[in-house]
Structures are given as C-alpha cells and as structure tokens.
Amino acid sequence: MGRPTQNPAGALSRLDSQKTHLKSICLQYQLYLLLNSHFFCLLKNEMGLIIFFLCAYVPKTAAGHCKWAEVLKDLEQIKTSKDIDVSLYTANTDEGKECQEPVMRCFFLETEVILQECLIKNCSKTQDVWNIWKNGNASLENNKLNSKTSAKCKECEEYEEKNFTEFIQSFVKVIQKECKH
Q1: Is the dihedral of CA 124, 125, 127, 130 positive or negative?
Q2: 56: buried, middle or exposed (CB in 10 Å: 19+, 13-18, 0-12)?
Q3: Do 167 and 88 meet the contact criterion of CB atoms below 8 Å apart?
Q4: How many angstroms separate the CA atoms of 46 and 41, rounded?
Q5: Which of 75, 78, 46 is nearest to 63 (CA)?
Q6: Among the listed ranges 36-50, 58-72, 120-134, which one has the minimum average pLDDT value?
Q7: What is the three-class DSSP state of 88?
Q8: Which contacts (CB < 8 Å, 24+ apart) does range 122-127 have?
Q9: Are 86 and 113 in contact (CB under 8 A)?
Q10: Which three-class secondary structure string do you get for 89-124?
Q11: What's the pLDDT score for residue 4?
C-alpha cells in the first residue's frame, strides 16, 4: 500500500494558519486578563465607582440624538452670511405640537429659496445651504403629512415674510425645540 501524498506547501500553509490562530487566541486572553484586572481595580475605590457609573448611566445630550443636529450646525455656519439677502416666509416658533411637522417643512421649503438665491449670486455659503436643504428633505421624506393635522395648521405662504437673519433665528429656535422632544 502506498502512502497518500501530501502537498508540502499546503501542509505548511495550514500549520502557519493554526499557529496564527493560536497566537490570536493567546493575545485575546492576555488582553482579557489585563482589562479584567484593571477594571476590578478601578471598582475597588470610590472614585473608580463614581467614574464607572457616570460613564455607564449619564445620558447623551439632546443634540447628540437629534436628527436635526447636522442642520443646526449648518444653520450656525450661514447665519452671519452677508451675501444672502432674501425675504422668506417665516413660521412662528410657538406653533403647537400638532403643527410642528408643517412648520419644519415650511422652513425647508424656504431654504430652497435661499439655495436658488445662492446659486444665482454664487454666495460663499452655497454648500452649507445645500447641506441644510438636503438633510432636511432626507429627514422629512420618511414622514407623510397627516391630512387632519395639516388642515389645522397654516400654509407656509400664510406666515409673515421676514429678512434672512430673522428667518435663521426662528429656524434655529424651531430645531432646538424639536431636539428637546
């Protein structure tokens, strides 16, 4: 009877793979022991316990979880722009909860007016305005207006026209209010 032939390169490759896997397991175990010992040492003193509980249980800030956080950042970027000069329908910041979505839609519709103005005048904040419009539409796209809700609320054109600065201030207030909920 003949012995089965083995490919020496294949056997070496398998052996190298097994060694690498074994080294990886050993490294993971050593890391586990190191972290485990430091973790328990940390919990042995009062300050360590305080830090642990603060890190584990302190909730994130509202802006961190708010889907409008990026829009808020971009609004901060454009609010001081001197080359945007438009009058815009500006929704009231004190509209009821049932009108919050139509109010947001109004602000984003008017952002499109700002974007068109920036494209015509080649203003310095065009990219920021584009980001606001794009992020706002992406967030609102998933929400379809409830016909009962929108009937109670004003149309965008029913609001007073205000200058760019007042529009941005109101927009920021509405987004901050939305982020708190």
Answers
A1: negative
A2: exposed
A3: yes
A4: 11
A5: 75
A6: 36-50
A7: strand
A8: 123/81, 123/83, 123/84, 124/81, 124/83, 125/77, 125/78, 125/81, 125/83, 125/84
A9: yes
A10: ECCCCCCCHHHHHHHHHHHHHHHHHHHHHHHHHCCC
A11: 47
Between CA 87 and CA 105, with CA 94 as vertex, the angle to 5 degrees is 55
Length of the chain: 181
CA 117-80-70 angle, 5° bins: 80
Q: Are 52 and 43 in contact (CB under 8 A)?
A: yes
SS3 125: coil
Cβ(168)–Cβ(71) under 8 Å?
no
Which residue type does 156 have?
A: C
Letter for the amino acid at 88? L
**DSSP label of 58:** P
Residue with tokens 């016909």: 147
Q: Per-residue pLDDT tens for 80-135?
A: 888 888 999 999 998 888 898 899 999 999 999 999 999 999 999 999 999 999 98
Instruction: Give the pTM.
Output: 0.61
Structure tokens at 162: 């205000």
Residue entry with tokens 């490919």? 7
